[in-house]
Amino acid sequence: MDRLLEIGKDIKTWSGIGALLGWDQETYMPEKAVDERSRQQAALSSLVHEKMTSGEIGELLEDLGADDDNPMGDESRCADLSRTERAFIRYVHRSYRKETRLPGRLVKELSETRSKSQSVWAKARQENDFKSFQPWLEKLIDLKLETAEAYGYDDNPYDPLLDDYEPDMKTSEVQRVFSDLKADLVPLVKAIAESKQVDNSFLTKHYPAKLQEEFGYKVLEKLNYPMDRGRLDVTAHPFTTELGSDDIRITTRYMEDFFNSSLYSIIHEAGHGLYELGMGDDIRGNLLAGGTSLGIHESQSRTWENLVGRSREFWEYFLPSLKSMFPENLDGVDVEAMWRGVNKVEPSFIRVEADEVTYSLHVMLRFELEQKLINRKLAVKDLPEAWNEGMRELLGIVPERDSDGVLQDVHWSFGLFGYFPTYALGNLYGSQFWNTMVKDIPDVYTQMASGDFTRILAWLREHIHQYGSSKTAGELAMDITGEPLNARYFVDYLNSKYKTVYKLD
Amino acid sequence: MDRLLEIGKDIKTWSGIGALLGWDQETYMPEKAVDERSRQQAALSSLVHEKMTSGEIGELLEDLGADDDNPMGDESRCADLSRTERAFIRYVHRSYRKETRLPGRLVKELSETRSKSQSVWAKARQENDFKSFQPWLEKLIDLKLETAEAYGYDDNPYDPLLDDYEPDMKTSEVQRVFSDLKADLVPLVKAIAESKQVDNSFLTKHYPAKLQEEFGYKVLEKLNYPMDRGRLDVTAHPFTTELGSDDIRITTRYMEDFFNSSLYSIIHEAGHGLYELGMGDDIRGNLLAGGTSLGIHESQSRTWENLVGRSREFWEYFLPSLKSMFPENLDGVDVEAMWRGVNKVEPSFIRVEADEVTYSLHVMLRFELEQKLINRKLAVKDLPEAWNEGMRELLGIVPERDSDGVLQDVHWSFGLFGYFPTYALGNLYGSQFWNTMVKDIPDVYTQMASGDFTRILAWLREHIHQYGSSKTAGELAMDITGEPLNARYFVDYLNSKYKTVYKLD
């Protein structure tokens, strides 16, 4: 066990180095260094892959009696181990099994296809030319199906793909919760569309980046983001990255004519970052440190971004300070107006710009299409039409160009199938956890209104963060809320909030 | 040969990653990440060491017939190889031999002693307490002597240590040139000290960092530093680092009450950077890319800093632009006054703050003491007294505290013996090369005065940069100037320049 932990620590050390290579490339790397950086990244990835699939790990797992039936190791052989150590065995067994099951030829072909298809996609999107991307997408789906076969599955080849991002989650369970969600969201979006639109014109005035940044740091400080264990930088697309357990960096981008963009990116990424920063002492610096699934990761970012950052109480506390920085832009704007402004809902074509209500519908569309593609129930050539059909059904609008539709996301060109649903699962987990938290901290809203977010963080840390990957998403849901994933909490939250924002009925 | 080149490329890739770890630590890394960064650095260093000392390299060198008598490989076996490939064999053979000759126990003991002695030194300097550092310095000298024994040497154990930084240079040759240098410098410093001091008070007015930075970028642009292949950042101590052949980053620090500090750091580091950026196509991205010795590296930084940046012509071109940025500070300052101001000479205690004339004397003092220490001709306990005695002889001043004397530099606490002389060798090589360049480009001063530095760079690239480590310092001197290292050129330059600056005779 000690040796396995030691190997894990070594792999984590190298992963942190890989994260630095990636972070630097997006932030400060000079333009012409890109080719050499790719070589550095490739060398590092193959070193980590080599370490992760070493024969020694296989032997250690065997010694501990870990196999598909006993992923946490053999009961009698592991009797002296802690719960975390057993979870560590499960984690390593899982990765080892997945990584060793893929034939080298497939890994290589996937990686080569991906790097080419990404540039084809970028050009196709720019030129609104789905046809040129079509053969690459077909090839990627073939390869992902082959991947699913290599991993193995019971009835749905989408399962093992989804499992890469949301371990142990089944396609059927996602279908169940998404179907509940859809039943409520579609009518809510319709009701909002038919009501009087809120005015958020004060958010599209001129907000200089430098001042936005200053306000961002103020918010990060109140959210207890430790700047001696992290950083905030500027990149084309915001992200969070783990260079070490004491080095979690987030990024944002500034739009000077739309205030929301950067602030909510910062809060969103800070949510991811606080999760990574909250690992327990028994898993810090080892493989269990890090989010247990993308869904749970997204639950943390969405909790801070939406449940906290888009709450009325958040603005009760922060509006005076924001108004002192932008007195002209926010002249006459009160807490009510600010709160309604940042919560404006509007069906739109682009997922990454969508609001809290319509966002999940964008995700559902992708999930439904991905499943059909992977199960050969939809041909790639018919994908654009199916996309537009889905948009009409879910959001009531249809894009005029594929660039604003089926070609908008980079994910598929990178072979990421099974990734999208985790974005929506995050909203669901987040609301479900929050519902329990409010019972544990009855005066949480009063605390927020006074700028005190420490107990929220402490609660998340106690129940979620400290465990890292030692509890699966399903285990967290059961342990915290006593039931599996349930869409009801998110739907209730949206219905109640937006009834007020839009003065429905 | 192909396989050896491939291994070299792989090692270079990993070295670039190591450089990024170091750069990030000095620039942007959050404070508390320091322990994990040390682990990352250690993992990377041991990987590179492992690769550099692999049995496969030993076998390949043997196949090529490379040994101490044939460092460039066996004539007949290497008949088809290019000059660069033969130099590559020499480089790898040299590193392999050195790295494999040190017993693992010694490497470990050195590394542990170093990391502890550095913090002891830092405290000792702060508290002006040489006694507490003394046992650590004694231990380090024991270990360096052991290192010298392991490397092997003919008559002077200082030779193999010097060789780590200045390959193939012998202690006796340094003694020869330093003795020539000393004979001329000491009277020059004395003559200057007795003449009327120049006024540089306009350089100690308030120069806001932001504006200094802006001017720094202007200068970098004119010096043809390609910002798409490098960066300029701020660190506590300025440095240059090679993350890849297209990614050479330099740093500086800003002192708002002394204009010289940052500008000349930027030009100095740019000199190092332009060298690294100028590698020929046949060595880019492989082990020969990089400076051939610290002395040659320093010749490039000093050439740009002093021969170019402290020339009258440099200020003929740049003064108007600087005056437009700082009109009040530089009111009434003409080219003559500016030129004399940036060339002020004054004996002082601290090496890193020394001017162009006294600098080499600081280095000579350290060189003389190091040699005596390594040859057991001076006991560590008597070092402070020997230091002060040397200061009196060379510079005519004696520090009141060891913190301003023998304790000022970090080098010895890090086990760097043989490193200091390269700082002064750089000045000598620089002037010797410049003397030839002026014959090749007779109107070089007119070009500089018009802000055209392209032909200087092209000349340095053609004769020095492109070769990287494929020519040794000695080979460069012979090939370019037709003679070995000669102190005369530097002495002539100083005598003629400072006669004018100080209106001597």
TrEMBL record, chains A, B:
Signal peptide span: none
Cofactor: Zn(2+)
Cofactor: binding details: Binds 1 zinc ion per subunit.
Residues binding Zn(2+), per UniProt: 268, 272, 298
Keyword terms of this UniProt record: Carboxypeptidase, Hydrolase, Metal-binding, Metalloprotease, Protease, Zinc
EC number annotated for this UniProt entry: 3.4.17.19
GO MF: metallocarboxypeptidase activity; zinc ion binding
Alphabetized PROSITE patterns for the sequence: PEPTIDASE_M32
InterPro entries per UniProt: Peptidase_M32_Taq
Reaction equation(s) it catalyzes: Release of a C-terminal amino acid with broad specificity, except for -Pro
Gene Ontology BP annotations: proteolysis
Active-site residues from the entry: 269 (proton donor/acceptor)
Family: Belongs to the peptidase M32 family.
Function in brief: Broad specificity carboxypetidase that releases amino acids sequentially from the C-terminus, including neutral, aromatic, polar and basic residues.
PANTHER family: CARBOXYPEPTIDASE 1, METAL-DEPENDENT CARBOXYPEPTIDASE
Protein name, as recorded: Metal-dependent carboxypeptidase
